[in-house]
Amino acid sequence: MMRLFGFVVALAVCACGYGESVDVVLNTESYAQSFGGERVLSALKEKGDTGGFVDPTAAEGDEAIRVTLLPNGADKTLVEAGFSLAKTADGVEVRAIDEIGAMYGLLELADMIGIHGLESVPEKTVNPRFPFRAIKFNLPWSSYRQSEELQALHHETLRDMEFWRSFLDMMAENRFNALTLWSLHPFPYMIRPTNFPKACPFDDAELAEWQTFWRTLFKEAKLRGIDVYLVNWNIFGSEGYVDNYDPEMNKDTGAHYTQAKNSPEMERYTKECVTQVINEYPNLAGLGISLGEAMNGMEAEDREKWIFRTFVEGMKAADRKIKFIHRVPFTAQANSGGSTDRATEEMTRNAIDSLDVDGPVWVEIKFNWSHAHSTPKLIQVHGGSISDAYRNPLPENYAVTWMMRNESFYILRWGEPDFIRKHIELNGQPYVGGYYVGSECYFPGKEYTHVPDHEHVTWDYAWERQWLFYKQWGRLLYDPKTTDQVFALEFDQRYGKGVGEKMVEAFKLASKMPLRFASYVDNSWDFTMYAEGMLVTARYQKCGYDDKKSPFLSLEELMDYDVLDPAYISVLDYVQAERNGTHDEELITPLELADELQGIGEKALGIVQTVTGDHPTLECEIMDVQAWSHQCLYFAEKLRAAVALEQYRADGDKEKQAEAVATLKRAQKHWQNLVAVTKPHHQPVTTIQMRNRIFSWQGLSEEVARDIAVAETYDRTKQRKAR
């Protein structure tokens, strides 16, 4: 293998792609370093060069790339999982104080080689912006959101370790460091409880298979610097536990949104399961708890006390400390409807302050409830507004972690890095330790939304279709200064040089559609919105008129809906304010939003028209940009029509009614374009937000047409319920 002597000359030769061989000095016994090093070799290969690893014991000191692990404290500029890239006389040195920092440094170096070439790699020092960068992953067994079809569809895939290795690789490459696995009651899938053996539904051979699965998963994650947490809901027992030991308790196979049922035996069972799981799985990093759903009827303080008698005492009894996620209470009252108050928050803080766990407690708070992909401003949490009790004074033994739930888009690809950057800027205060991203109503396992056996499908798993979503969230949570060049490079590597910059810009534009929709149309829990389908299946608080026709947001409903983000003004309030001469010019009107959406849609469509390439999956990506763009144009016209028809309702001006009808007919053409670009490659699928009914854009065409008929025959004297 040829070594490169003389930094300027040797690296210049290497960058020319003459097939020179580049030595990379790293610890080949380290999985993390080897993982990052392989990506460096791939980047060199893309540039026309080859490379190989050299163990530090065999290094001669003149190698082009070298990894150096510094003693902790030797470099005050580096923290855990941080790195620096420094130029040396012979090349580039990756410096870190731990294995994961070295891995991240090598991964960064691979990107910099791809963007700049090895001879022009910039020097930099990067430390993680947040120590906790997690993915929320709901499991299809003991599942929270129940759909027999979808649970069965994903079960085999999510028991396959090859799926998890690929998913963990993606997480490591994108700098995620926590995998949170969510289910109602995970323990019987992991252990045979010593004093409640019949709680486990498996025979010895079946349980052994499950245990091998879990142990392998936890070990594979740890190799990549990823902590795995099990997060559950309460109070539940397995079917075997309830049938054999405690027949009055709630099963994890039944309704989860139900009255609390508790007993001394249930508390003992839960506590012993916690201890046994910690002891039997040394690579399990942490546990997490939910103060619900089967806690209806319990006051907030009683729920907290139950957690301490079971989970906290179970953790204390274990052989080691474990990391801990404490979700804030869903309700301040003795129900499960969702509410907040300062007294509950102060009580919860006092309880969390008393915990003694491995590292800080991660206090999970849902950002804008179930629809965080809306406005980057904090409007609400689960249950309503939130006081400063968790942040004032600044916490010492815990940090807030924002739950960025995505219940807005599962089918269409999404990527808006400026939204993520702004979110971090506005919400990354000193008391914030990190973020989770993920869904409750979607399993990113088996690919099932795309038409099967289609030339587009060059991937194996559902998460791979949404690679840009994970890449942007992970990379920016680690380093918000990560540039769009990194995302463009990935496009170029996937589909050919020259497409990346355009595709990143097109997605940035088109991906604003669900953000604007979820900011403008009021929403709260999971079923109150599914933005990519323009659905509002369930109603909550300020949602206004319900035409009782379908989950689709109809014209009449849009006319009466309140907004989520107070920077906007609703259709109804806007028309009333204009009539009264009281309109606040600082507010964004529905007509201004319509103009923005039209501009976004037209510009994104124009960009992808200039993208050329023959990769079939590139066509799939372009079609998703087109789909969002047509939805932008559709919603723009629908907003205009809603304003015109509301003006007709208020004043009786028939010209406004005619304007609404004409505008809706233009909107219908945009919907037809949306159907035309989605139908060839996205198949109708079961959607949990539609209560397990089938969703497709084509399937909503009748609702789009019905809006026109409603406008043509609109009764302006019809009474509307008061908001």
Care to describe what's here?
The chain has 723 residues and is α/β, with parallel strands linked by helices. The chain folds into 3 domains: 7-126, Chitobiase/beta-hexosaminidase domain 2-like (Chitobiase, domain 2, 2-Layer Sandwich); 132-482, Glycosidases (TIM Barrel, Alpha-Beta Barrel); 512-712, no CATH class. Helices cover 43% and strands 11% of the residues. The protein is built from 22 helices and 16 strands. The strands form 3 sheets. An 8-stranded parallel beta barrel has the order 7-8-9-10-11-12-13-14. A 6-stranded mixed sheet has the order 2-1-3-5-4-6. A two-stranded antiparallel ribbon has the order 15-16. Strand 8, helix 6 and strand 9 (227-231) form a beta-alpha-beta unit. The radius of gyration is 27 Å and the shape is globular. The termini are far apart. 54% of the residues are buried.
List keywords for this structure.
723 residues; alpha/beta; Chitobiase, domain 2; TIM Barrel; 6-stranded mixed beta sheet; 22 helices; 43% helix; disordered N terminus
Helices and strands in order:
Layout: H1 7-15, E1 21-25, H2 31-46, E2 50-54, E3 65-69, E4 83-87, E5 92-96, H3 99-116, E6 124-126, E7 132-138, H4 148-158, H5 161-173, E8 178-182, H6 204-223, E9 227-231, H7 239-245, H8 264-280, E10 286-289, H9 300-316, E11 323-327, H10 342-353, E12 361-366, E13 398-405, H11 417-427, E14 432-439, H12 462-465, H13 467-478, H14 484-495, H15 500-510, H16 512-520, H17 555-560, H18 571-580, H19 590-609, H20 616-651, H21 654-678, E15 685-687, E16 693-695, H22 701-712
Parallel strand pairs: 1-2, 1-3, 3-5, 7-8, 7-14, 8-9, 9-10, 10-11, 11-12, 12-13, 13-14
Antiparallel strand pairs: 4-5, 4-6, 15-16
Helix pairs in contact: 2-3, 5-6, 8-9, 11-13, 14-15, 15-19, 15-20, 18-20, 19-20, 20-21, 21-22
